[in-house]
Each structure stands twice: as C-alpha cells, then as structure tokens.
Amino acid sequence: MSETMLIFGGWVAAGLTIFLFSFLYKDNPFFKVTEHLYLGAGMGWVFQTVLFQTWKPKVWEPLQAGDWTVLIPTVLGLSLVTQFFPRISWISRYGFTFIMGYGSGLVIPLTISTDLLKQIGGTIAPFMVSEISRANIGSLINGSIVAIGFICVLFYFFFSVEHKGVVKKASNIGIYFLMLYFGAAFGNTVMGRFSLLYGRFDDLYKYSAPKYFYATHVILAALVIYFVVDHFRKKKPEIEEEAA
Amino acid sequence: MTLIKKYIPLAICFLVGLMTLASYYVPNKTSENYLEVMNKWENIVAGFAFLLGLFSLFFSHYNKIRRKVDGWGYSLFVFVGFLVMVVPALMSHGKQMDGTSLTGLGWGYRFMFNALSGTMFSVLAFYIVSTAYRAFRIKSAQAGVLFAAALVLIIGKVPLGQLMWDKLLGWTHLGVTQIVQWLMDVPVVAGRRGIMMGLAVGGIVTALKIIFGIERQYMGKD
Known about the structure:
A: about 240 residues, mainly alpha, 2 domains, B: mainly alpha, two-stranded antiparallel sheet, 8 helices
C-alpha cells in the first residue's frame, strides 16, 4: 500500500475519532454520520468474516468437491430468512429449532463441567488432606473465606426457605461478597474502557505528526470552527425574534 | 399442517439436543464425528442467521431513505460503511495483508473499523464515570463495600494511584497491587462462584426445557 494511502488513512482515523468524541460536547451531524458509518462498517466486517470463514470454506468448497451434505445446514440456514415473509415465516422454525436443540445439548455438559463441578472442586481443594498437610496457613484462611463467602452467596439466592434467623444472617454476609464482586467488575470495566481511551489518544497524537500533515490539529480546529459558527448562526434568529 | 409447522421442528430440537448431549458422555469415534459435523452445521446455520440482522438493518434504513424521513441522509452512510468494508474484502479475498503490505480490507480495518469501534467504546469511559458519580451515593455499608472495592481496584491499576497509595499508606507496608491481587483471588472469587452456580443451574434447567419442548417461545406464535 502506498505511503499516500497510509497518510490518508491517518486522516480518516483521526477524523472519525474526533467526530465520535465530539458527541461529548453535543449531538452534531458529524457524530451522526460517523455513528451510521460505524453501523455499516461493523456489519460489513462481520459479513466478510462470515463469507470468507464460513460460507466459502464450509459451504462453497465442499459443494465443489461433491460433498452434498452441507446442503442440509444451508437449507436450514436459508429457512431463517423466511422470517421476513409472514405467510411462510413458520419455515424458519426448522433453522431455529436446530440451533436451539444443538445449543441446549451442548450447554448442559459444558456448564456441568465448567460452572458446577470445577467451581465446587476449586472451593473444596484448599481443604484436601494433601493441602492441609503442607500446613500453608495463608492458603487455608483464604480457602475458608472463599468457602464461607460462596455458601453465603448461595444462601442469598436460595428462596425455598424464608430468610430469617441464621439464613438471613448468612444471606446478608453473601450480599457483602456480591458487592465486592460487583465493585471489582465495575473497576475492571472502567479500566478496560480507559485503556481503550488511552489507545485512541495515542493514535490522535501519532496522527498529529508532520508526517500526517498535522491531521489531528487540522480536523480538531475545523470542528471547533464549525461549533462556533453553528452557535452564532443559531443565536442570530433568536436575537432577531426578540427584537421583533 | 400442525405436524409440519409444529411437531417436526420440535422433534428436530429434541433429537439434535438429546444426541448432542449423549455424544458428550459416550466417547467413541461415531459420537466424536457427530459432534464435529454438528459443530460445522451449526456454524453454517449461524452464518445465515447473521443475514436476518443484516437484512433487517438494510430494510429499516432503506425505508428511511425511501420515505425521506428526518435525517434520512445519515442512513446512506450505513450503506457506504458496509460497502467500504465489503468491496475491498471481495477484491482481496478476505485477506488483510498481501505480504508485508496492507490490502484494502486491512486499510479499512485499521483506519476505519478499529478507529470507530475503539472510540465508540472509549466514549463510554466518560459516561461510566459520570454515572458512577451519580450512582455511588454511599447510603449503606453494602454500597460502601462496592465503592471501596472499585476504588481500590482502579487505584491499584494505575501508576498514579500506586504512587498515591505509597505516599499515604506506605507505613502499613501493604502494597496496593498485593491488595488488589488478594481481592481478585479471594472474596471476588466467592461472589463470582455463587453467581456462576446460579447461572449454571438456570442454564441447565432452561436447556432441558428447550430440549423437551416445554420452553418454545423462540418458535413464535402459531
């Protein structure tokens, strides 16, 4: 790819970034254009991924090699599109029931092994004889906190008995563990978003270099000028109305 | 007609679900082959399911343009964005790199899609902070715990926070990174395990209801 296209790419990336950030000031046409562009580009990206990673290698190439069995999932898949035609939309049930049946059959063993057995195993592990014999007090204390917290959280979600007395106390302790989890999840989400933000600022800084002909500066200045002009343009009729 | 419209689809769900479930617990060559084929089939069907969303979006924006509703011009950019990604992809056969050089698709991904998705999600950082400011009114001890956990985690992950912690609480000889690690390894695990257990039980029950045809809302109305 030529250097010109890379510089042009820098201008496009800087422009799209600044236009999206402009929403933090207020809604504007540049943001709306970029928002719609993102919607289309996202769909385009997924479409080409499906085309070149699913349809071509898993449908087109097997058909060319004489493997006609792929026609079964293809017909089931195409049946989904009948959703757009109310009179024959019932045909889409064939595709949906296949997906739901396969997904349900798959999720049961995976959930049992990953979310149930491994989690219970992880809670019990610190209390195994082999672990205790190592006399690692820290591990034992931490294991006890996890086990107590885990049981208390389960009590919080257990509605078959009325929450009073010991059950209420246990479920109240469970709430504290849940709050710690939610707090940590929130903190992680914030940090994740901020790391994306640093990445965008880093790119804007990169595209502000002379190599990119100061793309960031020029676009930012142009947007500021637009907002100033737009502000006065909207203010003028208001003044005229007041005078009248 | 009820047979074709209702019972055969339910039978497909039942058979595919039960056979997939059984294949997992019967480890032999036939069941392994079955799972492999079903996985491939599911990928193909899911690929076509994407068309539902795509057509729906296109119809919606096409109608806006046709009726010339307010802001219809913006809808044109949905199609522009789509074509900007798809046309180069068709020309480069889905490849982002041609040797060491970027293809048209690679250019679109790097300078358009990456910039757009990164910025769109990073804008949320501002809204998360402003929402948190309004939401984190510490009215109870439980809300205080939530706030403290979030604060310690955020402070522990940025150099400025670590510096502040060392200056203010350095005398405790407890590093903020160690506290964050302990928080993530011990109490947070307890809370997460409880939620995961609840989700697992709910997921298994729902899956069984789908396989046995008790839950059939996804089929729509008769």
